[in-house]
Every structure is written in structure tokens, then in C-alpha cells.
What does this fold into?
Amino acid sequence: MTEPRTVVVPLLVVQPLEITEPAWCAGHPAVDSDDAHAQFRTDIDHTGPEHHFDFRGERLWTAMLTQAPHSSDPHLRVFVEQGDYARSLDPVGLYDLAATLDAHADRLREIADQLATILDEEGQ
It folds into this structure.
């Protein structure tokens, strides 16, 4: 038998929690909306506006600023999600895709610059 001691255990408390929202965050559902749901504190995340990268009307990628400030990795990052685009292309189509990828790369660099600016302002 050991001496009495204290221990910290995880607890899900289902009540609203007021949090600071970064300026770049696209917002959260209102507490009384159908889109709001209880979550663990570590699952709370901030997400910026989605940037869509399309080719011929189909989604290639989506990118957005994201941060889960109470998680094991609380750092601001850019989340990139790959779409389902899969096609066989002729030479013209492949050149079109390459040109589109060049333009998308420029936009991704702009998002990287935005991330770097925010991190510099926060001293990270």
C-alpha cells in the first residue's frame, strides 16, 4: 500500500469555454448552433479561410492556416489536404496542368509568407 497522493485525470466537462481567437481564424460555430459540439480541450482548433487549388474544375488541394493551441503540437501550421484528382492527360493537358501547378505554387508561397509573418509577430 502506498501513501495517499494526488493525481490529475482527464475530464470532459460539457460547458462552454471562452477562448481567445486569433485574428486569422475564420471563426467557430455559435454555442447554441446545430454545428457546435462538445469536444476535449486538446481538440479545440482554429482554422483560417480555405484556399482551394483547382484544375479544370476539380479540386487538387485545399490549404488553410490551423492551430490546436492546447494539443501536444500547439504550433501554427498550414494544413494541406489533397483532393481526388487522377486523370490521364495528353501533352496539351499536361502543359496546362504544369502551368496550373506553377500558379498554385506561387499561391502556396504567399500562404507560407503569411504564416511566417504571423509567427514573426507572435515571436515564434
Summary: DSSP finds one helix and four strands in the chain. Strands lie at 46-47, 51-55, 58-67, 77-82. The longest helix spans residues 91-122.
